[in-house]
Design goal:
The chain has 396 residues and is mainly α. Helix content is 64%, strand content 7%. The chain has 14 helices and 7 strands. The strands form 3 sheets. A 3-stranded antiparallel β-sheet has the order 4-5-6. A two-stranded antiparallel sheet has the order 1-2. β5 and β6 form a beta hairpin. The longest helix has 33 residues. It is globular and about 60 Å long.
Length: 396
């Protein structure tokens, strides 16, 4: 089967059998581990200029250890089980989004209500919502594949599509209500790519995109700050206004690092004027303190993560595993592109964290869950019967 002209692995057929290898994709696991280590080092360095350096560093270290534990545990779970738990995960996302509006639970920062504070923990519900929607999208596509001809486009039953639209619409309304236009666009971009790569006809994709236009227009009319961000982004390189300050500081930090950087804790810009050096602009801090070598290393690690994730999707034993691996790999890759694009001035300013590196437990845990599911898919492969017989002989 080819989805929209993009070659993907064929589903299991006569002569090929799904076989659990009991080994996760080591390169993918190593890439994530290295990104976590670099991120913890950057958070430590960024926290040195604050009043509570040890507190921030220790929280990120604990979150990183928990994230690794979550990945390992989830990797041991058969990825098909997440289809059974999809409604529980969706309900968890819905409850957390509603909790934003509970007094003393939802937090308002910079005019937006995007975080909940409970039992000493600060979480961003949209992260969990994105994971839930990736799983629901995979479920929808798997059901459609079963009803579709083997070599034809996906047939999406109207009833299933409407139900999916209701689930997605509730999330979109609550996320836009925060307001958080960027996270909503980010989530929809991931789901759109899953539809495209899953084989949904272009005509249907065009109709779905057209249906979203009124919502976008309504939001932009009622939240003009989003349009102002695009305007500021367009003017940033030619103006000395306050709107251009964040980008200018980020570019100065990136350029000041040279080839090898100033070293951890020895910043020229980061602890002084660089905005959000441990979160939104942590990539700029990497450039300042680890130089071009550091930034290219981070890009290389994300490249490995993306390549291995797509490799897992291509060789998944069934369509369900393929869609899950595609969805979570694309989610992490797009999030990384958004963050690095903002830090380098290629995209308008938006508070999206750098996966596995930015300070924040909710982002770490949400992405750890996603990578854990991809690692679970990687434990299975499609092998010719001859190779399977050889492996079975070795085991005996």
């Amino acid at each position: 089967m080819k989805a929209m002209g993009i070659p993907l692995a064929e589903p299991p057929e006569a002569g090929k059998t799904p076989l659990p290898t009991r080994k996760v994709d080591i390169l993918l696991l190593f890439a994530v581990t290295f990104l976590l280590c670099i991120g913890i080092g950057m958070v430590m360095s960024a926290s040195l200029s604050t009043n509570q350096p040890f507190r921030l560093f220790s929280r990120q270290l604990i979150s990183g250890v928990i994230a690794l534990g979550v990945m390992i545990v989830v990797a041991r779970i058969d990825y098909h089980r997440w289809f059974e738990w999809r409604l529980l995960l969706y309900a968890g996302g819905m409850i957390s989004l509603i909790a934003l509006y509970i007094p003393h639970v939802g937090m308002v920062m910079n005019g937006a209500r995007r975080w909940i504070h409970l039992a000493g923990l600060t979480l961003q519900p949209s992260e969990l919502a994105r994971d839930a929607m990736i799983i629901l999208t995979a479920v929808l596509l798997v059901k459609a594949r079963k009803l579709s001809p083997p070599d034809g486009p996906l047939v999406l039953p109207r009833k299933n599509l409407i139900s999916f639209g209701v689930f997605l619409g509730l999330y979109v309304i609550l996320i836009l209500r925060e307001p958080d236009f960027g996270s909503c666009v980010f989530m929809l971009s991931v789901l759109f790519l899953m539809f495209f790569l899953g084989g949904v006809p272009l005509s249907l994709l065009a109709r779905l995109a057209a249906a979203a236009i009124p919502v976008v227009v309504w939001f932009l009319v009622h939240h003009r700050y989003t349009l102002e961000r695009f305007s500021n982004f367009r003017m940033a390189r030619h103006a000395s206004s306050a709107a251009a300050t964040q980008l200018g500081q980020s570019l100065v930090a990136l350029g000041s690092g040279g080839l090898t950087g100033a070293g951890l804790g020895h910043d020229w810009v980061g602890g002084g004027i660089l905005p959000e050096p441990g979160t939104d602009f942590i990539f700029a801090l990497v450039g300042e303190q680890l130089g071009l070598v550091g930034t290219l290393s981070v890009v290389f690690l994300f490249g490995i993560l993306f390549y291995r994730g797509m490799h897992v999707a291509k060789h998944a034993p069934d369509f369900a595993g393929r869609m899950l691996a595609l969805g979570f790999t694309l989610s992490i890759a797009i999030e990384a592109i958004f963050n690095m694009g903002v830090a380098t001035g290629l995209l308008p300013t938006k508070g999206i964290p750098l996966p596995f590196m930015s300070f924040g437990g909710s982002s770490l845990l949400a992405n750890a869950l996603g990578v854990g599911i991809v690692l679970s898919v990687s434990r299975f492969s499609v092998l010719p019967l001859q190779e399977q017989s050889l492996l079975n002989g070795e085991r005996r």
